[in-house]
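User: Continuing from earlier, I have the next pair ready.

Assistant: Great, send them over.

User: Here they are, in order.

Assistant: Folding the first of the pair now:
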Amino acid sequence: MRAISKIVIVLLIIAALLLPALAVSAQGGTWSTGVNVQNLGTDVAHVTFKFYTPTGALAATYPVPASIPVGGVATVYVPNIGDLPNGRYSAVVESDQPIAAVANNVDLPDQMGDSYLGSDPGANQLVAPLWYRNASSYYTKFYIQNASAVAQDITIALRKAGDTNPTVIKTYTAVPAYASQEVDLATADFAALENSFGAAGVQGSSGDIALVVSTNKMPGGASTNLNTEYRGLRPSAASKNLVAPLAYKDSSLWNSGIMVVNAESVQATILVTYTSGIDGSNSFGQITLAGNAATALYLPSAESAGNPVPPLPAHWFGAVELSSNTALLGIVNNVKYASAGSVGVSYEAFAKASGTSAIAAPLVFRNSSGYESGIQVQNVGAVATNITMRVTATEGSAPKDASNNPVTGPWETTIANVAPGGVATFYLPTDANLSGIHDLFGAASFTSTGGVPIVAVVNTTRYQAGMAMNYIGINH
């Protein structure tokens, strides 16, 4: 009998219509979710979703109708599951092969959305490097799932940026098995945070948990709304060398902030290297950070004691590396403010040592309902390498060429001689091998030559609808 592989798709698995408690929520809107599951195994995968209500009740069991071939991908659009009522859910995805999964949450009327990765079970503690409470009109909600089979208490501790001790500690008692606890920082329970931002730690009293952090900016009007999401980070992911393959300073109106958490109790001295994605040149900054504290590097700001970002040129984009005497965790927040539609995305910075020569990206688009994807792949090894992207269409999709003839793929593109620390940009709309292709959504895989380690960030936009989503590639 095959072993069962599980991924916890934590929270915000939304079967159409509204989030609960809309009247008091800073989030609101009409949300829907699609989940892409990619088979990373050596045989066909048989996949089943189990959906749980916020109180932990099993709402539906959904076997994916068709098996997923090796390297293939299946899409489950949650509103199409007929016996699942409208509402908010968490889900456990079971498979007889190793899998990767991405949840894509969108609120088209309010022009918001983002993506996050499914989480493997096994984490009793998680870190959220970035939250907001009425800071520049940003508000955060945490969705914490009890990923164990028995009830447990869940505690969240929040500290402001720069502080070494929590300002608020709150415990939710006897959270039922598989239930999801919503934590809304806009409520009076968190008034002591005032108008601020910072980092948080979340812990279960006896078992595993999973976490998604969802932040909205809703200043009034769909064109200025934006949403970012990321999954909680394991403390074991902390590293003395973090990399962020994609950051911006006023590049096509995109700008970046990087929230850095010192995961140790001693002061950190952090060297920050900014590598241009245009010419490969490097700029350097340095920061000190107290033990257990968090701080933000905001790339558009001028260099100062509080924000030691060197004078990067206008329209800069590229990769950022942080090297420290202590272990760090980080979240990259990329935003684009535009009158036609503001967008924002978040992703977790990588431990440099987590790079591998193979990456899975379960969700990419090429001119599908207006969505387009680009993938930034960074060489985190010591020698140059060739990086190959292979795109496959999801099962049941119908991509076409420029003459509207059906095409099946897969499609492959190689970028040669990517230098150590350098980045390769695979932008699907301008990829010659995908010229004229439309209605393509599916998955991508990336491999390097010589076993050189690489990492990747997947960025998808639908600017005409004010939408952007991203997630990190899955190293395996």
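And the other member of the pair:
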Amino acid sequence: MGLLARPTGWMRTSWRSLRSARHALLTRRRQLLNMLTDERNRLEHATALILQSLADHIRCLERRVAEVDRYLDPTIERCPVWRAKENLLRTLHGVGPVVSRTLLSDVPELGRLNGKQIARRSGRRRWLGTGARFEAAGGVG
């Protein structure tokens, strides 16, 4: 059985459980990608003795990322609202499955808030358009 074995009753889980599972899977995916980047960066400075170990670990991490992706699909497909939001996001140029799922996880308010409200919640700055002034989430800075 794999690292991410499906629990009993996987298809009968509640919406809250699916949201929690999706968030956990996206968090784990991000962690695995960070480890994968670290290992690839180590390749540049590795000695011949270490290269094979790094290559093996990179292959293992790539398999784990693919496994997380396979388990992520049902969590999106089970909820019509998430599926509709993902389909809408994917119509935008440059937005693929990774970006759309990350946005769905990190900004669940998408579709209910306007751009200003989302910027405020995400801590982004808004360009005021005059000079070099920005409006931060809590005021002008």
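Worth noting for the second one:
The longest strand covers residues 134-136. The longest helix spans residues 48-77.
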